[in-house]
Amino acid sequence: MTVRISPLIDRLIDAFRILPGVGPKSAQRMALYILRHNRAGGRTLADALIDAMERVDYCRRCRNFCETEFCNICADERRDDSLLCVVESAADILAVEQAGGYRGRYFVLHGRLSPIDGLGPDALGLDRLDALVGAGGVGEVILATNTTVEGEATAHYIAEMLRDRGLAISRIAHGVPMGGELEYVDGGTIAHALRGRRNLAVDG
Amino acid sequence: MTRRIVNELAYVLHQRPYRETSALVELLTVEHGCVSVVGRGVRAGRRTAPGLHPFGRILVTCSGKSALLTLTHAESLDRHVLQGRALFSGLYLNELILRLVKHDDGHPALFVAYEEALAALAAGEEIESVLRRFEKALLRECGYGIDFEFDAETGRSIEPLRCYRFQPDVGFVGVAERADDRSVFSGATLLAIRDDGYHDADVRRAAKRLLRRALAPHLGDRPLNTRSLFGDHRR
Questions:
Q1: What digits encode the pLDDT tens for the residues B111-133?
Q2: Cβ distance B172 to B151 under 8 Å?
Q3: Cβ of A115 and B226 within 8 Å?
Q4: Which spans in chain B are helix H?
Q5: What residue in A sits closest to B13 (Cα-Cα)?
Q6: What predicted TM-score, i.e. pTM, was given to this entire model?
Q7: CATH of region A78-199
Q8: Where are the domains of chain A?
């Protein structure tokens, strides 16, 4: 049983528990730490939380999180308007950005189709994606949803939705990871990698 | 009482995240029907048990005291890779099973039918035929099998040239006229559906209409969500 300390401290401990990976013990440690060692940091955290919760919304174009009308990526005029990369989460944008090399735009679904859990096409803002593509300027849609069953279903659903728009639709490659050894890769992945093999161009 | 399932053949029907690194996994087993297990830590780090995703065939060991068992071991055997409409169809099969098959109710024949349906979908067979064959097998195994042999009222054999109205839980009843009724089918069509002869497009359409009616009473008020995947996007 959790030991109650005082109403304010208990409330702080409970509040920390909303964070992923934070159980009762960690929450208690965090609460006691900022009370004892870092009150200024605690205030900064509180202010940052309030500001972010009140002002962060979705980008009107790509649905990424941002507090302005358009996110930084959508507002950047040097980006390639003709490429649109569809991802499941805002974290996926960061992953692609950190990998470097991609200079197009994004669209965030904030989820994936999971009909058995009741998450259908309506829950993903796919009408917004359809409208964005329909507005013109996009030449290729890159479907970068996860390679899970739901991610595949989502990619295929979007591909069917956009089929008549007259643009290129591509799916990110999946198969053996970089530096991976075949011996340790599961059968399904190897089968997929074999089907998705490509020609090896040899110079000279 | 502790229930234990040891090294039983199972297919993964669904996986949903649970807590930080765990997952709730729905399985179709040979001897125990549908089984829900919690896999602790299966989503942790990079070793995300690839076999525990839908259409994966595993040997499962689990135990527990409640309806939700704890996964202790899952040995991944193989996995059907479905793409496009075949993938949507596979998800549809999974949803049907989750809605109709009871826990702790073994259906070895259903397991075989499911296995055959997945293999057919993965091999790119005509989807409608695969789905209808499976729906018939599912109804039969759950005790709601459709009798394609006899008129439910008169007990006479279904005749190709007569028409019959389908009544869920009753069967086919002969009718005089082929009225404009979506529940009426010709005897010839019914015999074709009985024999899974779906090469004719009219038979395929009739089979879809019939099986929707046959499944409806067992699905309750909630619609099948996977049906929304098959939307028509043409403008």
A1: 999 999 999 999 999 999 999 99
A2: yes
A3: yes
A4: 85-100, 108-122, 127-141, 187-194, 201-219
A5: A116
A6: 0.85
A7: 3.40.1360.10
A8: 7-55, 78-199
